[in-house]
Design goal:
Blueprint: H1 3-6, H2 21-43, E1 53-64, E2 82-91, E3 105-111, E4 129-134, H3 144-156, H4 161-171, H5 178-181, H6 187-192, E5 204-205, E6 210-212, E7 215-223, H7 226-229, H8 244-255, E8 258-266, E9 290-297, H9 305-314, H10 331-351
Antiparallel strand pairs: 1-2, 1-9, 2-3, 3-4, 5-7, 6-7, 7-8, 8-9
Helix pairs in contact: 2-3, 2-10, 3-4
Bound molecules: protoporphyrin IX containing FE.
């Protein structure tokens, strides 16, 4: 049987809350808030608690493929629709560091004009679907208890710039051998040490599971057109500056467009592909990532001052900005409900910006 034929059906019992989960999430959010406030004090500006540094803000279109099998024809991918999309490229730490220091890369995607009921009671007017992705297939701290332990470590070392910087990179969705030095041994971390390569050539993953309509899945976004595939593994330019990633993105999109493919890995066994521990890789030989849509990004000015301010200070991306058919699943996703809300509320208050959801792609300035 193929992975498609074996896809596990979604039901409410798929998620199982951890013992003391609410209390652990309270502690995660409180600790993140304390660190975030001190970063804000340093810069006199509200930053994202994770993925503070942006490297490009892009507009494009996501085209869902026709002729998908029923198991892949789900949620926003149910029809061969075309959605306007805005993307924010970032690196993981919750502070602004030099791009010479390797850090996990992120992309946040907001699709507009999506059909279907929204998940949040306060979002019934919204027509957006966000996907937040990082360039690793798993998150090393895959449930609330593990995440709390590392967050506490990060806070404890927040005044040590080097330690904090690397621990932040590790915590905020990647890995670092440094955590061994401060008392956390995790073999997964050693395999995640990311090379400092071109941000447009990486494959980005949801790392944690989400509801995929009647099924359960993880998703990824992979370079598709020749120009971005050629950047996979490409080292940063010699003499790279502190804002090298932004410079690479801006230079690229001044003269090129790009295509990426959105792919879906269906869960075919809840034992071997758990939703509650996002540190466990789902075996790709058992269930490969299957193409469902193409993201096309035309040439554009990727980091104008107006775009940067809008994306960094006004826009919010959040995995819980979604339709019911793409509900985030598992302990780490539940921790994100309050973490993103708290981070965005603080950032918007400190920068005195409105908390809005866009309705039209032209809301994003050029
Ligand atoms: C499961 C894997 C995860 C992925 C793929 C992921 C990815 C991302 C990305 C791409 C961003 C940048 C969003 C933007 O550009 O606006 C982000 C921001 C953020 N992440 Fe995560 N993340 C994950 C897990 C977590 C967890 C477990 C927490 C905390 C419990 C967390 C807390 C945050 C916060 C607070 C922000 C900033 C939100 C804001 O101020 O708007 N993330 N994440």
């Amino acid at each position: 049987m193929t992975a498609i034929e074996q896809a596990v059906r979604y039901h409410d019992g798929v998620e199982q809350k951890q013992e003391n989960e609410d209390a652990m999430i309270d502690q995660i959010v409180a600790s993140m808030g304390r660190v975030n406030r001190s970063v804000c004090d340093k810069h006199r500006h509200g930053m994202r608690d994770a993925h503070a540094k942006s490297h490009g803000i892009l507009k494009g279109t996501l085209q869902v493929y026709g002729d998908l099998p029923e198991q892949l024809r789900q949620g926003v991918f149910a029809h061969p629709a075309s959605y306007p999309a805005v993307m924010r490229l970032s690196t993981a730490p919750g502070d602004i560091h030099s791009d010479k220091i390797p850090a996990p890369r992120g992309i946040a995607i907001k699709l507009l004009d999506v059909p279907g009921p929204q998940l949040g009671a306060d979002r019934q007017q919204a027509r957006t679907q966000d996907f937040l992705l990082v360039n690793h297939p798993v998150i090393a701290f895959g449930h609330a208890a593990a995440y709390l332990k590392t967050q506490q470590l990060l806070e404890k070392h927040a005044d040590d710039p080097d330690l904090a910087r690397q621990a932040t990179a590790a915590l905020a969705h990647g890995g670092s051998k440094l955590l061994h030095a401060v008392g956390i041994a995790n073999p997964i971390l050693d395999t995640l040490g990311a090379p400092n390569s071109h941000i447009l050539g990486v494959t980005f993953y949801s790392m944690a599971a989400l509801r995929y309509g009647d099924y359960i899945a993880k998703i990824c976004l992979a370079p598709l057109s020749d120009e971005v595939r050629a950047l996979t593994g490409a080292a940063l330019r010699s003499g790279a500056g502190d804002s090298e990633l932004r410079d690479l993105v801006v230079d690229f999109f001044r003269t090129h467009g790009a295509e990426y493919e959105l792919r879906v890995q269906l869960c075919t066994s809840l034992e071997r592909m758990p939703v509650e521990d996002a540190s466990i890789p789902w075996p790709e030989d058992e269930s490969p990532y299957l193409p469902v849509a193409k993201l096309t990004i035309p040439p554009q000015e990727a980091y104008s001052p107006a775009r940067r301010v809008f994306a960094d200070d006004v826009l919010s991306f959040n995995p819980w900005h979604c339709i019911k058919a793409h509900r985030p699943l598992g302990s780490i996703m539940r921790a994100r409900i309050r973490a993103y809300e708290a981070s965005s509320a603080f950032r918007h208050t400190m920068n005195q910006q409105p908390r809005i959801e866009i309705t039209h792609i032209d809301d994003v300035p050029n």
